[in-house]
Automatic annotation (TrEMBL):
It is an enzyme of class 1 (oxidoreductase). It catalyses: 4 Cu(+) + O2 + 4 H(+) = 4 Cu(2+) + 2 H2O. Residues 117-208, 420-545 form the Plastocyanin-like domain. The lineage of its organism: Bacteria, Pseudomonadati, Pseudomonadota, Betaproteobacteria, Burkholderiales. InterPro entries: Cu-oxidase-like_N, Cu-oxidase_C, Cu-oxidase_fam, Cu_oxidase_Cu_BS, Cupredoxin, TAT_signal. Keywords: Metal-binding, Oxidoreductase. Its EC number is 1.16.3.4. This is Multicopper oxidase CueO. It is found in: Periplasm.
Length: 546
């Protein structure tokens, strides 16, 4: 992968600026629009103005989809030497015709090229070194989401560094090929830091992945594209606003815009062939119910991978849920779409199942929300033009080879996801920095049974340091049960190797985890809800492998 040409720069980033000074100026501007996570916000002295709700039709999707280039925001960087990340501020166009939005980014310069939140290209087996420097006047740390690393590299909140501090990472890439990501994980402020821009993509390559790309004629940046889908609350001046109310700390913070690769109403110009879309839900709370439409007809797609790489074989689907932190790797055959026509990627309407006795506040801070939780949302217009050069190659019968985790002697460890009227809980506990909620024996295989109470809400549950296989879903709501592809109740997006799984109210999801690892000594990791408002308010525990 690193020998291929870098991602094409299809979308414009004119006006992108990395602020050369320490974060003080950008931080001050950011604080005009955000409140500290973990604290109830006080009323603003001046009212923040939000634009009136606009529900866009397909004709309004005219902004070129931003795709990472060699430099700038999400600039592609083949990891070949030690890297230095400095947390700083950047200005980036988000809403056309509005002022540049103030973002927080991981700035990095290599070979005279500036990048912000660089997209890292790596290969299985190589060693990665990163020095993180904190320019923010509050603690931060990087978590390598989905990567198989030791506890001191994983980036839990205990490792957070203060302003001016430095943290050095050095780890071998042990993962299968896939699209992973990195983001901040300090306690009580992770949601706001990630929401304000701190996140990047981490690609791993291996022989199986290369074989699939070559077979299907896929090239990164051309017809193999990352799609970071996230909602943001944006004011009338084009600035991001993060001010959760009490109800939004409870239910999740929703935006009045849904962006793809930080693009409002994005348009991708495509040709009639295979397109691979590697989708990440980068929202703090919103769940998407993904589907493709050609006119009024749904367009089936092929799921070829999930969080941690390729499936054994492709699974045809018509829709799939994607919760915060999850990734979904799909193929869409655009050769079946006549030239001059288009396909819409949508999030279809669904029941958000806020059954905890109160719904997430949709209007906080005076914002008018275009799309309430569970509403239908148009995400991306894909315009197809030109003639097919050749018939797309058929999908391989086998994409990847791996074994199921042997669970015949596995210990079952229950995790109850609950609400006590004040806090979201894991086995009746909220996060305490020094408390270890569970100890697992090294090399053991366990089944973690995630039981969500019926008077709750959906929780995307994420494990650090390991990946798992979903074993079964029980008592699933109809909208989830309809997606089952086998007798265990699993959907296509549950297959393969995962690090995050969505658990609906009243549902029980079993996952198998092999706690074998090569690291010396006892290791401490996190297990938490990836609704980042829930995480910041304490729906998180430490577990130890010893």
């Amino acid at each position: 992968m690193t020998s291929r040409r870098a991602f094409l720069h299809l979308g414009g980033v004119a006006g992108w600026t990395l602020l050369s000074s320490p974060l003080r100026t950008a931080w001050a501007q950011s604080q005009d629009h955000t409140s500290h996570a973990g604290h109830v916000p006080t009323p603003a002295v001046t009212q923040v103005a939000f634009p009136s709700p606009v529900i866009r039709t397909a004709d309004a999707f005219t902004n070129p989809l931003f795709v990472p280039g060699n430099s700038g925001l999400l600039g592609v960087m083949a990891v070949q030497a030690p890297l230095r990340f400095t947390v700083g501020g950047a200005k980036q166009p988000v809403v056309p015709g509005k002022s540049l939005a103030n973002l927080l980014v991981y700035g990095s310069e290599q070979g005279g090229v500036q990048r912000a939140n660089p997209t890292l290209l790596t290969k299985k087996g190589q060693v990665v070194e990163v020095a993180l420097n904190n320019g923010m006047p509050e603690p931060t740390i990087i978590h390598w989401h989905g990567l198989l690393v030791d506890g001191k590299t994983d980036g839990g909140p205990q490792l957070s560094i203060p302003q001016g501090g430095e943290y050095r990472y050095r780890f071998e890439v042990r993962n299968r090929a896939g699209m992973y990501w990195y983001h901040p994980h300090p306690h009580a402020t992770a949601a706001r830091q990630a929401y304000s821009g701190l996140a990047g993509l981490f690609f791993v390559d291996d022989d199986e992945e290369q074989a699939v790309r070559e077979k299907l004629g896929l090239e990164l940046g051309d017809n193999d594209l990352p799609l970071v889908i996230q909602d943001k609350r944006i004011d009338a001046d084009g600035q991001l606003v993060y001010r959760p109310t009490d109800e939004e700390w409870k239910g999740g913070y929703l935006g009045n815009e849904v962006l793809v690769n930080l693009t409002v109403a994005p348009l991708l110009k495509a040709t009639p062939r295979w397109y691979r879309l590697r989708m990440l839900n980068g929202s703090t709370a919103r769940i998407f119910n993904l589907a493709f439409f050609h006119g009024e007809r749904d367009l089936p797609f092929d799921v070829i991978g999930t969080d941690s790489g390729l499936l054994r074989r492709a699974q045809t689907a018509k829709r799939a849920f994607l919760s915060p932190g999850e990734r979904l790797d799909v193929l869409v055959n655009l050769a079946q779409v006549p030239a001059g026509q288009f396909v819409m990627l949508k999030s279809l309407a669904f029941d958000p199942m806020h059954q905890e006795g109160g719904h997430a506040g949709h209007g906080g801070s005076g914002a008018a929300i275009n799309w309430p939780d569970g509403a239908e949302i148009p995400l991306l217009k894909i315009a197809v033009d030109g003639a097919a050069v050749s018939t797309p190659a058929p999908l391989p019968n086998v994409l990847s080879r791996f074994d199921d985790i042997k669970v015949s002697n596995a210990k079952i460890r229950p995790w109850k996801l609950g609400w006590n009227g004040k806090d979201w809980l894991l086995n009746g506990k909220t996060f305490q920095m020094s408390e270890v909620a569970a100890t697992v024996r090294r090399n053991d295989v366990e089944i973690w049974e995630l039981q969500n109470e019926s008077q709750g809400m959906p929780h995307p549950m994420h494990i650090h340091g390991f990946v798992f296989q979903v074993v079964s879903r029980q008592d699933s709501p109809k909208q989830q049960g309809e997606l089952a592809v086998d007798r265990t109740g699993r959907s296509a997006s549950d297959l393969g190797w995962k690090d995050t799984v969505l658990v609906w109210p009243g549902e029980t999801v079993r996952v198998a985890i092999d706690f074998n690892h090569p690291h010396a000594g006892a290791q401490t990791f996190m297990f938490h809800c990836h609704n980042l408002e829930h995480e910041d308010k304490g729906m998180m525990v430490n577990f130890r492998v010893a």
